[in-house]
Each structure stands twice: as C-alpha cells, then as structure tokens.
Task: structure prediction
Amino acid sequence: MTAIISDEARRTAPLALWRYAHEYLRAARSLSREISVRCSESQVPYHIAAQGIEFALKAYLRARGVTMAELRDDVGHSLLAALTRSEALGLPAMPRRCRAAIADVAPCHQNEQFVYMVTPLKAFPDIDPLVDAGAWILDRIAPDVVEQFVQHRAGDASPAAPELLQRLRADLSATSDIVNPQPSAAGVAARDRGAAPQGAAGRSRRR
Result:
C-alpha cells in the first residue's frame, strides 16, 4: 500500500506534471509539422496540445498546494477553471494571444472527451498559439515547481535548484520561441571571467 501511495505521489508531483505538459506540447508541435492533415480529417494535434496545457496549469496548482482530490472535484479537465484558479493563486496575467488560444480550445477539451473543433473546411492545424501558451505557462511556473521539488522530493544526487531550473528552461526553449533560455550559473561565471580581462585591456588602451 505504501508503495502505491509513493508511486501516486511521484506521478502527481508538480515536477512530474510539468514534464508531462512539456512532452505533450512537444508532441503536438512535432505532429503538426511532420504530418499535413486538414483539421476536418484529424484534430489530434489540438487534443494533445490542450492536454499539455491542462498538465501545465495543474503543475502550478500542485506546486501551490492544491491536492489531487481538489483538482478532480473542483477543476476536472476544464482549462478555464484551471486557469482561473491558477491566476487566483498568483500566476501572472497571460499575453492576450496565449489567453485567446486557450479560450478557443477550452470548450472542446471536456471531461469525457475532446469535442470536434469547427474550423474552415480546408484549414490545417495552427498549433503554434496553443504550444506557445503552454510553454509560457511552463516558463513562468518553473521556479515554483523547482522550489517545491527541492523542498519536498530532492535527494542527495538531485541537481541544485538553479541548475534544475536552467535545464527545464533550456529544454523548453527548444519547443517554443516564446521562451528565452537562461544561462547556467557556470555560464555566467565563465562569461564574467572572460569580461574582466577585456575591461582591463580597455582601460590600458585608454591610458
């Protein structure tokens, strides 16, 4: 019984949900780029992207102390309910384009199924706004997710918080251009070491 509880805790931890979200968003973008299928024939990329956004919002809510029971009872699979609760708990206001993308897909992402999204007859999926919305959320919540992991789940072999945060954002920047990867602490130190001699040389030349 203890092993089952432990496994459930790992699978529903904020960091696990963050990684699920990123995997879904990355899959949605890859699928839409590799296979040219009209929306009228397949809406799988939208379904996958919406699931990624759901995981992203729930990762933040879990990091803020919301239990899985509360998520099941109060949020379900509603993207708008998850977004509203996330903002109430401190998620910054989203860019208008990202919020609009979530609002467009939210009615289709229901508790029991993904409902067909009405699109122009010959349209192809435009997944980028949804992926960017999910990536924006993951980028903003990464510090909260890392902090929760370090405080409650990290072991002796786990990376330090700054290194883990840099890894997450570096991976995320490969999925969406909306994210700017942050330099690692080692990279900043190396850059600073390289800048000092140049400054000294510059001062020498000015004398």
